[in-house]
Specification:
Distance between the termini: 35 Å
Number of strands: 2
Number of helices: 10
Order of helices and strands: EEHHHHHHHHHH
Radius of gyration: 20 Å
Largest sheet: 2 strands, antiparallel
Oligomer: single chain
Length: 270
């Protein structure tokens, strides 16, 4: 696995050394390995509690997921040779997302009890298959050359996902202030605390510029504002004009700081 960690290819195809913080790199590997399992467990818990009528607003912020995050975890699973059992939990999350979309926009004509059993059966099947592959040691891992190629794409995803997600957060939060709830946008580009920690550690481990982490700070700040707004009716975000103003100020500061550090980096390279 470590045969390629110090080398990658740039976008123009030239080989170059990738500077890595080895201590944090181990934590990144650990997070990649356990994140699908943690997120799958929180997703199942969220489904169970929701069906039982218990408030679960905090759970998506802690261990929710988006298709963008799942794609990154799925690619990482091949890059680091985690095997089929690791990817099965990602498959479960995709199935859970499809079920949620169908239930929200079409409606699944079953009782709450049957819906709960559906989630439990799917989760049970996934866990059973994962244990089977784990015990048998069955894997379809890629060779070293393919790993190197995938590693380049993974680094690119880690670089651009915070910026793309920040854009999703900006649009969704503004629309939310006007009472327009776009669950699809959260499913496409939302990030939970688990994924925010992963992206932040990855940013430091791979020694990305500070401007990269500025967008992660924006995502975290926006998530905190949304949580506070959800649990406090007296919060300022209940005022539409003021909430939009706060969001634009926060976004403007983020872009300004990001551009500042980017220009500073370009100046150093010259």
């Amino acid at each position: 696995m470590n045969c390629w960690t110090n080398n990658s290819k740039s976008d123009n195809g030239d080989t170059k050394n990738v500077s890595i913080n080895k201590r944090l790199y181990r934590w990144v590997l650990l997070l990649i390995k356990v994140s699908p399992l943690i997120i799958a467990a929180i997703t199942l818990l969220n489904s169970i509690l929701s069906i039982l009528g218990i408030d679960t607003a905090m759970l998506p912020y802690i261990g929710g997921y988006s298709l963008m995050a799942l794609l990154m975890l799925y690619l990482s699973s091949f890059v680091f040779n985690f095997g089929i059992s690791h990817r099965l939990f990602i498959h479960y999350l995709v199935i859970a997302a499809i079920i949620s979309l169908l239930d929200i926009y079409i409606g699944i004509p079953v009782s709450d009890k049957a819906f709960l059993w559906l989630h439990l059966i799917i989760a049970g099947v996934i866990v059973a298959i994962a244990i089977f592959f784990r015990n048998k040691g069955i894997s379809r891992d890629r060779d070293g050359r393919t790993q190197k190629a995938l590693f380049k794409y993974e680094l690119s995803m880690i670089r651009i996902i915070p910026m793309i997600s920040a854009g999703f957060y900006l649009v969704r939060t503004i629309l939310g202030c006007f009472g327009i709830d776009l669950y699809v946008m959260s499913l496409l580009g939302g990030q939970s605390l688990v994924m925010i920690i992963f992206m932040y550690l990855s940013s430091i481990a791979f020694r990305f510029c500070v401007y990269h982490r500025v967008f992660i700070h924006y995502i975290l700040a926006t998530s905190i504002l949304n949580v506070i707004d959800w649990y406090s009716d007296a919060f300022v975000l209940s005022n539409i004009r003021l909430s939009v103003l706060i969001i634009f100020i926060l976004s403007g500061i983020t872009i300004f700081v990001a551009v500042y550090f980017k220009l500073k980096e370009i100046k150093k390279q010259r």
